[in-house]
């Protein structure tokens, strides 16, 4: 939530910062702003709306300098407006700050500052921080240095932050600090960048350092130093090489990142699986957690904790892990799990699933579980992310960067990992080699299956064209496909703003059936497995109430043809791989519906890609 980028070095910072903001825009797009130091003179421009609005203002005003900070906002405190946009300046207009996170005690700090005569221009929590830094720097009896004023201010605030600060009095210096919100330092040849993630950095250098909580980096005269915020103790950190290509973070020929990422699934699921199979033995190899298999197998229970789409992946993971390994699995929203008195001991395993690895609730959930003695494992996509670093061990999904706010390829990668984990555990618990081989063969066929699904995209588009005016959709599935229905409904809500619900198909009769009439499209997930006769009966029930039936199946028959208004037939696969292939259809359907409704697909209203605040 919110994207930060800053630059210090010999080049013109403006194009670097603007390009960086565009790369970070998936983290928030309520407003954008930039501040630069140009010969002892601080300039700042900010604008409500997307980065493109800011760019148009900058074209006119020729702002320049040799170091600068920039921000793209997802509003928490204060509406999206020019005034509430970052950077925020102090009263003297000498210090500029960009902030990602929430200052929880901003109200109390603001009151104290107001009593000292400081007036505020914005409704944000972030402005309080820059005013506090300024007050400590210019007015404290101890005559604090700029850096020490920042340290002192950070010790007075409670909450989460990733900040970067510049000051007119110290024109060649940039200071950044982190507590809870991610910051990456890029170390180039005589130049440095600090950003919320590596995407604005990759073009300039591949050498990065991930800041940890309670760390402050100060950059001056082509040198940087990292120290603890509170104790000033120097921290020696090693450079990490980022493994990211420019192509991976650009849309290429696609009109939207979401469509690109849906198409990436022709190879990304194989990328997730690469080197992780042992076909001869009908099992998988998951090196990242190899040392902990015995713990997992003997665990009293596993909790899977996550948010949003990753939580849906967890529900499917529960189904599979319990079926293959018979270890009990509970799936919990991280936002609930972190605050309840769950039964956790040192025989409990916590699996945190997170694409970004930065989701605040998921991070808090694993921190709590760790404190209570549980073993924590991460299933993350972003290497170097906080959850990846704070869990005891983990498995990376390796699906490449996901930029579209609506998660697509990260979800199918998470499912792939969970299938592989379930199989690995199952093989140790007596699942036969033959059964394992069958599952692996289906997984290995997935590139072709996804390509076949993308070949029916015209048909999916036709379904969208005939249903896009609906105000509500129902998604129904059974067993392992119930969470697939939930995920299909979430995708639709997020990007098309159509209200949608996912239900276990049989639950429809216990309430939602009251909603069904000739205006209600109902998406049935109906593979020809043991649950098929049951789901056929549910389809009949909707037909009897004149609902519009959209069926996704892997084998068409006459009854389905007669009952359905639209049928989407996808390749037959293993019943535990079907949730992956079916999800691709649901992603395409949501995408096409959003296109019909002319929605902002990659930047849906009110959303941000990674939710780093509570
Ligand atoms: O990065 P995470 O997987 O932890 O994110 C969790 C959710 O915020 C995320 O899945 C969200 O629901 C997506 N926008 C769904 O498309």
Please tell me about this protein's structure.
With 614 residues, the chain is of the alpha/beta class. It folds into three domains: 3-248, Aminohydrolase, N-terminal nucleophile (Ntn) domain (Glutamine Phosphoribosylpyrophosphate, subunit 1, domain 1, 4-Layer Sandwich); 251-444, 3-Layer(aba) Sandwich (Rossmann fold), CATH 3.40.50; 455-601, Rossmann fold. Helices cover 37% and strands 23% of the residues. The strands form five sheets. Strands 3-2-4-1-10-9-11-14 form an eight-stranded antiparallel sheet, with helices on one face. Helix 3 (106-115) packs across helix 4 (126-139), helix 6 packs antiparallel against helix 19 and helix 14 (446-455) packs parallel to helix 19. The protein is globular and about 80 Å long. The structure holds 5-amino-5-deoxy-1-O-phosphono-D-mannitol.
List keywords for this structure.
globular; 8-stranded antiparallel β-sheet; 614 residues; 23% strand; 19 helices; binds 5-amino-5-deoxy-1-O-phosphono-D-mannitol; 26 strands; Glutamine Phosphoribosylpyrophosphate, subunit 1, domain 1; Rossmann fold; 6-stranded antiparallel β-sheet; alpha/beta; 3 domains
Helix content: 25-40%
CA gyration radius, whole angstroms: 26 Å
Q: Number of DSSP strands?
A: 26
The tally of domains stands at: 3
CATH architecture of the largest domain: 4-Layer Sandwich
Secondary-structure-derived class:
alpha/beta
Query: What is the number of helices?
Result: 19
Rounded average pLDDT: 94
User: What's the story with the biggest beta sheet?
Assistant: 8 strands, antiparallel
């Amino acid at each position: 939530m919110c994207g930060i980028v800053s630059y210090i070095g010999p080049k013109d910072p403006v194009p670097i910062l603007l390009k960086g903001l565009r790369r970070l825009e998936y983290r928030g797009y309520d407003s954008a702003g930039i501040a630069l130091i140009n010969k002892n003179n601080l300039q700042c421009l900010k604008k409500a709306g997307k980065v493109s609005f800011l760019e148009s203002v900058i074209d006119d005003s020729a702002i320049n300098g040799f170091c600068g900070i920039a921000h793209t906002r997802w509003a928490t405190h204060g509406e999206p407006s020019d005034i509430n946009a970052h950077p925020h300046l102090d009263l003297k207009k000498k210090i500029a700050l960009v902030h990602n996170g929430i200052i929880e005690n901003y109200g109390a700090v603001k009151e104290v500052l107001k009593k000292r005569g400081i007036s505020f221009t914005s409704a944000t929590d972030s402005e309080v921080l820059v005013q506090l830094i300024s007050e400590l720097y210019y007015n404290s009896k101890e005559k604090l240095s700029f850096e020490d004023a920042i340290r002192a201010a950070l010790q007075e605030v409670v909450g989460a932050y990733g900040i970067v600060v510049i000051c007119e009095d110290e024109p060649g210096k940039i200071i950044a600090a982190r507590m809870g919100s991610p910051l990456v330092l890029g170390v180039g040849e005589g130049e440095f960048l600090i950003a919320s993630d590596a995407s604005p950095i990759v073009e300039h250098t591949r050498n990065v350092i991930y800041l940890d909580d309670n760390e402050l980096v100060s950059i001056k005269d082509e040198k940087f130093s990292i120290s603890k915020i509170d104790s000033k103790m120097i921290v020696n950190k090693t450079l990490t090489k980022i493994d990211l290509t420019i192509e991976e973070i650009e849309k290429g020929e696609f009109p939207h990142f979401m469509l690109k990422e849906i198409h990436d699934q022709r190879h990304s699921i194989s990328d997730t699986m690469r080197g992780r199979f042992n076909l001869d033995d009908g099992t998988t190899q998951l090196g990242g957690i190899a040392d902990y298999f015995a713990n997992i197998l003997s665990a009293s229970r596993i909790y899977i904790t996550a948010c949003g789409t990753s939580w849906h992946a967890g529900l499917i993971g529960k189904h599979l892990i319990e079926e293959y390994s018979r270890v009990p699995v509970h799936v919990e929203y991280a936002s609930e799990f972190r605050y309840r008195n769950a039964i956790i001991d040192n025989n409990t395993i916590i699996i945190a699933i997170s694409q970004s690895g930065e989701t605040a609730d998921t991070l808090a959930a694993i921190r709590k579980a760790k404190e209570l003695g549980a073993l924590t494992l991460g299933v993350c996509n972003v290497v170097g992310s906080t959850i990846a670093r704070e869990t005891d061990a983990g498995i990376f999904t390796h699906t490449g960067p996901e930029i579209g706010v609506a998660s697509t390829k990260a979800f199918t990668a998470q499912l792939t990992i969970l299938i592989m984990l379930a199989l690995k555990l199952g093989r140790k618990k007596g699942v036969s080699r033959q059964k394992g081989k069958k599952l692996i063969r289906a997984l290995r066929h997935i590139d072709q299956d996804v390509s076949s699904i993308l070949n029916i995209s015209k048909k999916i588009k036709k379904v969208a064209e005939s249903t896009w005016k609906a105000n509500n959709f129902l998604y129904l599935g059974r067993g392992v496909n119930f969470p697939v229905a939930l995920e299909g409904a979430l995708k639709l809500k997020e990007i098309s703003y159509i209200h949608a619900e996912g239900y276990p198909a049989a639950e429809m009769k216990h309430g939602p059936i009251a909603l069904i009439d000739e205006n209600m499209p109902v998406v049935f997930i109906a593979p020809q497995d043991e649950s098929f006769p049951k789901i056929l009966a549910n389809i009949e029930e909707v037909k009897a109430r004149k609902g519009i039936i959209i069926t996704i199946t892997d084998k068409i028959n006459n009854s389905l043809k007669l009952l359905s208004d639209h049928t989407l037939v996808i390749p037959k696969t293993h019943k535990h791989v079907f949730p992956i292939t079916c999800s691709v259809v649901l992603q395409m359907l949501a995408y096409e519906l959003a296109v019909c409704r002319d929605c902002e697909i990659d930047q849906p209203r009110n959303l941000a890609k990674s939710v780093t605040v509570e």
